[in-house]
Amino acid sequence: MKQEKQKLGTILIILAGCFWGSMGLFVRKLGTEGFDSIQIVSIRVTLAALIFSLILFIKGRSGFKISFRDIPLFLGLGFGSVLFFTVCYFTTINMMSLSTAAILLYTSPIWIMLMSVLFFHEKLTGRKLIALAAAFGGCVLISGISGGGITLTGLLVGLGSGIGYGLYSILGTIALKRYSSYTVTAYTFLFAAVGSLLICRPGEMFGRFAASDHLGALILFCILTACITAVIPFLAYTLGLESVEASKAGILATIEPMVATLFGILIFKEPLTVLSGLGILMILSSVIILNVKDRS
Predict the structure, then answer these.
(1) pLDDT greater than 70 at residue 147
(2) CA torsion angle for 103, 108, 109, 114 (degrees, to 10)?
């Protein structure tokens, strides 16, 4: 039973990575509507918060009950992880190349592994280290590192995005010991939504909605964006964390840039380079390494 649950958890985390990999499709579309990156983040997390709250209400209103002492935990998940890593990531994109920003974001499995050893006493096995090296190397090859324009401030902010991204696995694992996945995701996004509305220039954002000549279609697309890039993947990832170690989950989620690359090739007709192809194979190999059974 435990192995079956772990298999399901692995599938859910890989599924989450696949949905996150589609994010570029939605971000590009909303960008053409005049929204900047922080406003797109706010639209995404605010609608996700409403949807998660509706799901939790349907599942049972008792799920909204949390202990006062756990508010800092959910603040950490909402502000310190989801909102913090997204803002850091987009800030890094504006300061340095997109490839450098992506690579710094995907240092997250390294931070997850270190924090898992420190806080959860997870074993740092040779298999995990090999899978981690393959996954990170694959991300580097897919992103295509370019050293130009790297600054100390940009580097620190970029590393912040990786730490914040990884923090979700750590804090989420702690929260799941006390609450259901639905409660964890709902409160995480409620706090993230409140924070995003403080920094997204809401007056300007709502003005863009009001000026749209296809408001109904735009709202429906925003809801679809929230469902595909936040609700489904974060719920799947959080459910997966119930049975998969945080360090393993972080490595499995690196399938995201591979999926994003494939979307770029299939939809935007972007070329598949030899290095990108090798990077895809390395990420796939890391997933295989983590899921091959021990013979002992």
Answers:
(1) no
(2) 130
